[in-house]
Amino acid sequence: MRKVYMNNAATTWPKPQEVPDAVYAFMTRDGANASRGSASERDIKSLDILFTARMKAASLFGGYAKANPKYVTLTSNVTHSLNVVIKGFVKSGMRVVTTSMEHNSVVRPLRELQQNGVAVEVIQASLRGYVDPKKFSEAALERTDLAVVSHCSNVCGSVQPIEEIAEICAKRGIPLVVDCAQTGGVLPINASELGLAALCFTGHKGLFGPQGTGGIVWKPEFADACSPFIVGGTGSLSHEETQPDVMPDKFEAGTMNLPGFSGLDAALDWIDRTGIDAIREREEKLGARLEEGLLSIKGLRLLGSARGEAPRLPVYAFNIDGKDNGEFANDLSMTYGIEGRPGLHCSPLAHRTLGTFPEGALRLSPGYYTTEDEIDYTIESIRALASK
Ligand SMILES: Cc1ncc(COP(=O)(O)O)c(C=O)c1O
Q: Which of 85, 206, 262, 367 could pair with 22 in a Cys bridge, judged by C-beta atoms 3.0 to 4.6 Å apart?
C-alpha cells in the first residue's frame, strides 16, 4: 500500500539525509561523552558538537545568545525547556498569564504550580484560535510575573501576534517566554529583538533534527534569575557538591544527547543552506493546495482561519459531519496509508477554544518533503471515505 506521511506537526519526516548520517557517524566513529574524558580528540569533538548546536541555535533565533552562546541551554525537547524555564522561575504567590491555545507542555506545569499557590490567568483566544493583543494587555494590567505564549497552535496553525504581545510585555517589564515548537525553522523570530526572557524550541519538528533534542535561548538576566530543577553531574567543578551556577552547566546536568545533537547540527546546516523562507514558501504552497481540496469536500469543517484571512501555518485540523475523527483517521491509514493525527493533540484547552472538546479533530500537516501528488491523493482519499 502507498504510504503518505501527513503528520509533520508531530515530527517532521523524513529528515534531510545528512541528519541520520551525522547520528550514525557519531554512534559508530566519534561516540565519546562530553567533558567526561581525558581531553582526547574524541572528547573534544563531543564538546564541539554541543558548542556548535548552541552557536547555530543562537544564530537561528537571534539574540543575546549570539554574543554569548553559553546562554543557549540544550534540552531533550521543548517540554523539557518549558519546564526548566517555568519551574525555574515561578514561585508561590506569583501570577502567570498564558493563553487558551497552549499545548499541555505549558498548561500542565502551570496547573501543577497553581496547586502550590501560583495564580494562572488564561486569556481566551478567538474561536479561530487567535489571541487578541488587547485582551492580553488588559490581563497584564494586574501585576504579572511571567507570560507564556505559544507562537503557533499545533492544532489549527494559528500564528499569534507575538510582536504586539512582546511589545506589551516589554513596556510593562513582564518576562515573556515563547514556545516556538511549531515555528522554529519555519518563521523567523529573533529573541533579543523581541526582548524575550526565554525562547523555547524543540529539535525534531521544523528544525528537522532527531527526537530527543531541544533548547532554550535565554536572556542572560532571566537565566540568572531561574533555579535549575534537575541537578547532578556536569563534567565540571566536580569538587563541588552543589549545582554550579555557571552557564551552560547550570541547566545541563547529566550526559547530553550527543547523537541527537550531532543530527541537529547537520539539520541546522541544512536549514541554513535551504533557507527558512524557501522552506516556508514550499510548505505554504502545499498547505494552500491541501486547504483548497479539503474545503471542496462536502460536510468537512476546517478549524482555524482560512489562508489569507489571518497568519497561519499549514497545520489543518477538521471534522467531517457524521464521522468520528479517530475512526476516520484509522480508516484513512488502514485503507489509504495516509498518516495523520486524530484526537486532542495534547491541547485540550485549544480544542475547548475551537469548540472541539472532547471529540477532537483529525489533523493533517504536510511538510517540506510532501509532494503535490501526495496532497492530491490525500484529498481524493478523504473525499472517497467521507462519502461512504
Ligand atoms: C506548540 C507545541 N508546544 C509543545 C509541544 C511539545 O513538543 P515536544 O514533545 O517536542 O516537547 C508541541 C508538540 O506537538 C507543540 O506543537
A: 262
